[in-house]
Each structure stands twice: as C-alpha cells, then as structure tokens.
Amino acid sequence: MAKELIRLSHVSMAFDGEVVLDDMNIYFNDKEFLTLLGPSGCGKTTTLRIVGGFLTPTSGDVFFDGVRINDVPPSKRQVNTVFQRYALFPHLNVYENVAFGLRLQRPKISEKETAARVGEMLETVSLRGFEHRTVTSLSGGQQQRVAIARALVMRPKVLLLDEPLGALDMRLRKDMQQELKRIQQQMEITFIYVTHDQEEALAMSDTVVVMNAGKIQQIGSPEDIYNEPKNAFVADFIGESNIVDGIMRADEVVEIFGRKFRCVDKGFAPDEEVDVVIRPEDVDIVPPEKGLLIGTVTSVTFKGMHYDIIVDFYGFKWLIETTDFCPVGERIGIDIVPEGFHIMKKSIYSGMFGDYSSYSEEYDEISDAEYVEEAANDGEVPE
Amino acid sequence: MTRGMKRLSIPYIVWMAIFVVAPIFIVLIYAVTSSSGAFTAANFSNMLSYSGVFARSMWLAFIATVICLVIGYPAAYILSRLGPGAQKICMMLVILPMWINSLLRTYAWMSILENTGLLNRFFRAIGLLDLLGIEFVPMINTPGAVVLGMVYDFLPFMILPIYSVLVKMDYTLVEAAEDLGATPAKVFTKVTLPLSVSGVVSGVTMVFVPAISTFVISRLLGGGSDMLLGDLIEMQFLGTAYNPHLGSAISIVMMVIVVICMSLMNRFGDGEEGAIPL
Fold this sequence. Notes:
The complex is a heterodimer.
Chain A: E1 4-15, E2 18-29, E3 33-37, H1 44-52, E4 59-64, E5 67-68, E6 79-82, H2 94-103, H3 111-124, H4 140-152, E7 158-162, H5 170-187, E8 190-195, H6 198-204, E9 207-212, E10 215-220, H7 222-227, H8 232-237, E11 242-250, E12 253-256, E13 259-262, E14 272-278, E15 283-286, E16 293-302, E17 307-313, E18 316-322, E19 331-336, E20 341-345, H9 357-366, H10 369-378
Parallel strand pairs in A: 3-8, 3-9, 6-7, 7-8
Antiparallel strand pairs in A: 1-2, 1-4, 4-5, 9-10, 11-12, 11-14, 12-13, 14-20, 15-19, 16-17, 16-19, 17-18
Helix pairs in contact in A: 2-3, 2-4, 3-4
Chain B: H1 3-7, H2 10-31, H3 42-45, H4 51-81, H5 84-95, H6 102-113, H7 118-125, H8 128-132, H9 143-168, H10 171-179, H11 184-213, H12 216-222, H13 229-237, H14 244-268
C-alpha cells in the first residue's frame, strides 16, 4: 500500500565501544504514524537522531527515497525534529521562532509568504494571537505547540518527535495525543515518534516498533503487538501479562501446569516448549469446582473500574483483572477461552518476565501488612 | 524573602555605605571645592587642557577591548566545545596568570620588550636587526606596548564571562537551528552569538573599565611619555602636581564617561542574565 520513504539498512551505532544499536533494519512508510517504543537506553532516540542527521551510524546505511543520506547534514534533510525539551530559541518571540527556518531558505521567501505560512501553522496548532509573546512566557503545552509549528512550517516529508509529551501533565498529554494524530492526518506526512509510554504508542500509532537493548523486538500494528506479542519482553512491556512455561502437545492444544488447554495457535513442532501469555483481562473467575485451574487469592487492589487480584497457582502468581470482588485467601477457579492463550516461541527473554510474585510483595509492603493478614484469617474485606 | 534573610544583608549595606558610597561623596566634594575649601567649578574647566589625555585613554582602552574581544570570543567558544578534561586544563591555563601579581607580570613584559630585552636579543640572534640595518626594534614606551600590556592583563576577564555563557547554552538549540536548515555560519550568527551577547557585554565592561583607568601598565610599558588618565589622576594625589581637587574632578568625569559607555553597552544585552547592571 504505502510507499517506502526511509530505510535503515544494517545500521549499528556504538559510543566508546558500547553498542547502542545492533544491526538494525527498518523502513518507514510515507504518511505513516510510526512509534519507536522501548525502555530508556533501548536505542530509540539514537535511531531518531540517525534519521535526523545528528548522528552518523558506526556502520550501515540510511536511505531517503532510495538515496543514501549518511553524510547529508541535518540542514539539508527533508526531515524536521521536535526536540524533547522543545529547544525553542529564547531570544526570539513565537512568530520569529516559527519563521526561523523559512528565513534561512534560499531563494528567499517573501515576508508576505512567510507571514502567511507562519499564520497558517499557528492556526493549525491553535496558537493564533500568540505571535508576539516571548516563548519563555508560554506554558509547557504551548511551548510544545510552538516547537511543532516551527518544524511543520518547513513542510517536511517526515517529522521526528522525541518524547514530545514527556514534560506535560497527564491531562495535557491525552489532549496533545489527539492533537498530534489530527495534525498528522491533516498534513499527510510521516511522523516518527519516540516514547517509552506504551499506552501513548498504542493510542496514536499506525505502526509500533518495540525495541530493547539496541534491537527491534517486534514491528506491527498496535493490535498485533498487543494481541500477538512475539516474545516475553514485548508481552511484558505492552500491557500486563502472565507468562508461563507451556508445551504444545498438538495444533491448538497447549499444556500448562500439567493440564491441556484448547488454544488457537498452530504450526509448532510436536511437544515444543513455548512461552504462554495470558492477559489479566482474559481470565474468567468461576467457582472452584468448575475451574480449569484452582488457585488462592493472595492480594487485592482496587483500581476503580476493576480489581487487580494476585492469584497463586501452584506457586506461580498471576495477575487477574476482575469486576467481581474476591477476598484474600479465597480459593477460586478460572476459565480461559481458547483465544485467551497467546503462544510464543522460546526466546532469550523466556523466564525473565510475567511472574507477579514481586508485584504482590510490593503490594504487601505498601499496605498495612498486619491488617491484610488479619483480614485473610477472618476472610473479611480489607479496605 | 523573609525578614530574617534580609537582616543578613545589613553588614554588607554598612560596608557599602562606609567604603563605597561615602568615598564617592568625599571625592565629589573635593571635586567642587578649591584648596581653600570654597565652592568652585574651576577644577572642571581646567580639565579642558587634559582633553588629549582623555581621548588617548579612551582610544587605547577601546583598542585593547576590541583586541580582547577578537581573541577572547573564539577562545571562549573553542573552550566551551572541548571535552570536560581538556576544558578543565585550558581553564586553568587562562586563570593561572591571574594568580601572579600583575605588577610582576608587567615588569616581565618590560624585560621582554626593552631595547636590550629578550625579543630584541632574539631578533639580533636570528640576524633580523642586521638585515634591517637598525640597532633595535622600538617596542617599549610605545602605545602598542601599553595596549599589549592591557590585553595581556585583562584577556581572562573577557574570556571567562563569555565562556560561562557559552558553556551553559543548551546545545539542542544549535541542533534545532541545523534541523531548520541553518549552515554552521548561520547557526553562529542567528543563535550562538545573540545568546552570548550578555557574556560579551560583561567581558567588554570588565576589560574596558580597568583599561581606561590603569596607571601601572602605561607607566611601566608606556614610559610615562604618553600620559593616560590613570597616570594623570595618580599625579594629582601622589605626584609632583599635587592637586587632589583636580584629581577628584578628573575621577568624577572618568566615572561618568564609563557609566555612559556601559549603559550604552547594556542596551545590547538588555534583560539578559550575566550582564553587569549599572
């Protein structure tokens, strides 16, 4: 469908011998909202800076529209950046900040056209009337908008955004997410967005690239990434996941805790060892006698729309989201529909994630431990 | 600010009143009186005969300031872009001379610039003097030597404020400018330079003010032939021409000139941090 615009081919980056990007291969499509998602230090910002031209890769090539641009400086790339802390010019007012790039263009852009384009851009980011304000007098959200307008007024083919909402409060973030998505669709250009916030990535992106330790873990639509995580790292990083060891006994049959369950995955070798992901919201609580597995509730956290409960199954602790209240100490059964199992091949991340033992300990520490214990004995509701 | 904090500033205010404000008043009173104690404006009208000294002082201080700026800005810029280790060492080298008494340093320049000094001996050794057919290259007791002395003494005062502004500057601003299409030259003229104006204003102030009033440098390196304001004032208090009333009047006029120059300068760095307020 979409046309390929930027390609990173076998790109590696090392700082003082420390590998930050390891043989990265990726392409970015035209008019796409793509998010690089990962924990800090995963190489997402480095990738962005390589595309922007601020870093030259240690090895590998960067192509723009089929042309190798490794040695093209940032000033000559059809790419503009919205920096993490905005990087607005403090000695210029809002108008001059936005007009900065236009004034540098050769052949010269007339003052009239500059004014028209700056005005149009300020309109787009809802900052009409702020032209003569100093940038230091603006709020964080307003500064953010100026930074976006300053980059977009250049009519780039690609806009790079480095954690642009990181400094904003929760409410403003949500508004700006909508705003950015709208601007991207209105301008019909590619956005490459860097964030460590998985919710933000899922909410805004056409494509999400999950990265860790300088490597791409998975590329896909937000739904793909959430529903079909490729390995334990992705499953754990995107949303909450219970990850247990399993064995594929046959197509569509997986065995965990010595019991066979029906699932919808196939194509694995007979008796292949796998990681099984079960999302907390995919677990149904049933009376113990009807349960496929039976466990004991070890902690309960009220989350508003639901309860987060930690359930001990044969020594392995699961996180389950439920709207039914289950007191600590109660024995419950669970049922999981076949679509609730996500089977993953074993990876280097197997066994590192998906056990909520530490989660419950953390919870115990912050709650009144004595009271919880007492309540557990009485079988009463801890508040 | 709490009242308790305000109280802490009392010793400083007392100090300022006794040792800064009061002396200025005393100087002012001396300037408008004659030796008999009567009020007079003669001290100021007599000063006209020294207009040459005023002009020369301002001119030499101006040249020294410009040279300091021309050397100091690039030096500060390069310093601010060095690695942290190299930056420390280079800062040390800039500050080091300031630890040595300035009189001593000026004497050192005398022995370098003298007619039979180090440089002239060097020129003789390499045959330069024979080639030109002269006894020595005249260096000491020239305005050039005075300017050299000023530049040497005051250069760190130019480098330090500019450096401290540049090193604090957010480097992503440079990247942002590049990103928007600025060549390195444009980045400098449109971002780096405007954002370092406050440092330049401080530096110019800190060089120009001591340069216009120096008397050690002009005496030792200028030989006293081309008198500067500092020498003139010193002569009125300690020298042969003993006349503290005239000396005070000259001091006042010089102060006014400096204040006017500096307030003009400060217009450029208006509202910027780091500028010396006057």
